[in-house]
Design a protein that fits this description.
Heat Shock Protein 90; 9-stranded mixed β-sheet; 5-stranded mixed β-sheet; 19 helices; elongated
Length: 614
């Protein structure tokens, strides 16, 4: 048998109108793909109705039952019938010519498909009392078929929408739902995102009688919004968030961004809300990556919650059936606004590092001694900082310190500068292992990684000089010859002029070396060979298609790393205090160029807890 190509129909196809039930079920598949989508649509309706309290109850992940109750404006008897008709909505206002403006949407959604879509594939019950009305009414809809509204009992104004047996009318869709736990998790995420957008609304979520979410209403102020975000994103976010607020061309972005040292392995804590609507948009991913490029390694991600408000005509909210995506009229302006707002907020944070750095350090500390006393163990049981500590016995018993073991003359003792509250990083007291500076603050102590801190300071100065034009170079008394592989020289040679703008002047020397004549003056004494090798490696990662200025962060970061105070260098007291003062005056000095903290701060209360004194 031979394969034959398909042949066209011999007669023209017959075009038929689908029955209304099939049309509704097809539309329902686009809008309501899982229980979480139904909950999202119903909660958005409640918010558009002016609710200040929304309660959600679910059973079996919303598959068998889900209920959304609100205290909004409610609906009258005739409105109930219109609410389950396709393309009927209260969210669009007609113009004087009788038409509606689809590009001027000021509500959470207007497609007019949520209730009829749910009703087409489930058993739906709507009970509602209009604000100021004497009577409440209820309407039952099963698989798209409904009768007449009937009188009902409902306290106050608002609505109660109950959905049972979701997708019973479309069993094929029911088979594709995930486990009860997975669907419950998805519903929780949907409600939390809406709750983040509306801090002024109280939310409750209950699953099979178990309370999952219980959020009180907060004022729509900066503090109130942060309190709501902290309740959802975690207390650590609330303690390590920077306020963001900027305006450009009629658009405003506000919200909060986490400190660079408060970062995560996944970008799962990055949220964007457009005119109060939670959306997924690649725009925020790119903007956040660009804003934090100076501060985080490529595999680390910050936490942000940004609220973008702009005129309705500047954004199309109707590009996705589930209303989870939007299209901006001028995406470039919006991206620029997000990036500049985040960068400004990070700069305002100055030297601040996250409190999680302190908590991590405390968690790693272990009481030392030949054993832990019973009194200490008793204190540990009631002390969260000590509860999990296991103190190994020392190999040698501790020696009594009476001064005999003290060095006759300190090698480098910082001046006894008194801690000044005006200096948040305190006064230098010692240097440990020629690597860490210990400073005393007014209410604790700080340990600074001198190399990481100086690396950030050099990097910020280099960026400032570049913005002014050109980085000054300092001539080497004897030019340095650096041997490299031929392919590395081939990568460096076309960029000699660009490196000269960065204060690094070099030229090819023979077949397998370069001669370095000048290095950036602000780097001071530098390991020239290590620097050139690092830049050759950096160019291999950048590729030949990009100019150095397009990847300035990586190049300057390499230079700063090789030009900073190295671990193992002994510092005088004046040098240590100068480093602290420069950190206080330099933006972003709380983390190195790779996102790691440059210092750890321990409050006196934290130290006292470690010793069981609190």
């Amino acid at each position: 048998m031979t394969n034959q190509a398909a042949t066209p129909l011999e007669t023209a196809p017959v075009i038929r109108r689908l029955p209304p039930g099939a049309v509704n079920r097809i539309a329902a598949g686009e809008v309501i793909e899982r229980p979480a989508a139904a909950v999202k649509e119903l909660v958005e309706n409640a918010l558009d109705a002016g609710a200040i309290r929304v309660e959600v109850e679910i059973e079996h992940g919303g598959k068998t039952r889900l209920v959304v109750t609100d205290d909004g404006c409610g609906m009258a008897r005739d409105d109930l019938l219109l609410a389950v008709e396709r393309h009927a909505t209260s969210k669009l206002r007609p113009r004087t010519d009788g038409d509606v403006d689809l590009m001027n949407i000021a509500t959470m959604g207007f497609r007019g498909e949520a209730l009829p879509s749910i009703a087409a594939v489930a058993r739906l019950s709507i009970t509602s009392r209009a604000r100021g009305a004497d009577d409440a009414w209820t309407l039952q809809v099963n698989g798209g078929d409904h009768g007449e509204p009937a009188p009902a009992a409902f306290a106050g104004s608002g609505s109660r929408v109950e959905v049972r047996d979701l997708f019973y009318a479309t069993p094929a869709r029911l088979k594709f739902l995930k486990s009860d736990q997975a669907e419950t998790t998805a519903i929780g995420e949907a409600v939390r995102k809406l709750a983040m957008a509306r801090a002024d609304v109280a939310f409750k979520l209950t699953s099979s009688g178990r309370r999952i979410l219980n959020l009180a209403a907060e004022p729509m102020t900066e503090d109130g919004r942060l309190a709501r975000l902290a309740a959802i994103m975690g207390r650590d976010f609330g303690e390590n968030a920077i306020a963001i607020d900027a305006t450009r061309d009629g658009a405003r972005v506000s919200g909060f961004a986490g400190l660079p040292t408060y970062n995560r392995g996944l970008p799962d804590k990055q949220f964007l809300f457009v005119n109060g609507r939670p959306v997924r948009d690649k725009l925020i991913v790119g903007a956040v990556r660009a804003a934090y490029a100076d501060f985080l390694a490529r595999d680390r991600h910050p936490a942000v919650a940004l609220f973008l408000d702009l005129p309705p005509h500047a954004v199309d909210v109707n590009v996705h059936p589930a209303k989870t995506e939007v299209r901006f009229r001028d995406a470039g302006v919006i991206r620029g606004l997000l990036v500049s707002a985040l960068r400004h907020g990070l700069a305002e944070a100055g030297h601040r590092a996250s409190t999680t750095v302190r908590d991590f350090a405390l968690g790693k500390m272990t009481p030392q001694g030949p054993g832990v006393s019973s009194a200490y163990q008793a204190a540990a049981r009631s002390n969260p900082f000590l509860r999990d500590f296991q103190a190994p016995p020392l190999a040698d018993p501790p020696r009594r310190f009476d001064g005999a073991d003290a060095p006759s003359a300190p090698q480098s003792e910082p001046e006894k500068e008194a801690p000044d509250p005006a200096f948040p990083l305190g006064a230098a007291r010692a240097q440990l292992h020629e690597t860490y500076v210990v400073a005393q603050t007014a209410d604790g102590l700080i340990i600074v990684d001198q190399h990481a801190a100086h690396e950030r300071l050099v990097y910020e100065r280099m960026k400032a000089r570049l913005s002014e034009g050109r980085v000054e170079g300092q001539g080497l008394l004897i030019p340095e010859i650096v041997e490299l592989a031929s392919e590395e020289i081939a990568r460096l040679k076309p960029r000699f002029d660009e490196f000269a703008e960065l204060g690094l002047v070099m030229e090819q020397f023979g077949e397998d070396a370069v001669m370095v004549r000048e290095t950036p003056a602000l780097l001071g004494e530098v390991d020239v060979k290590a620097l050139v090798q690092a830049l050759a490696d950096e160019l291999a990662a950048i590729g030949d298609s990009l100019a150095l200025k397009e990847r300035l962060e990586e190049v300057c970061s390499s230079m700063a790393c090789h030009g900073s105070i190295r671990s193992g260098r002994r510092l005088t007291g004046d040098e240590m205090n100068a480093l602290l003062r420069q950190m206080e005056a330099t933006p972003h000095s709380g983390q190195c160029n790779h996102g790691r903290p440059t210092y750890v701060e321990l409050k006196l209360a934290d130290i006292e807890r470690l010793f069981g004194r609190r």
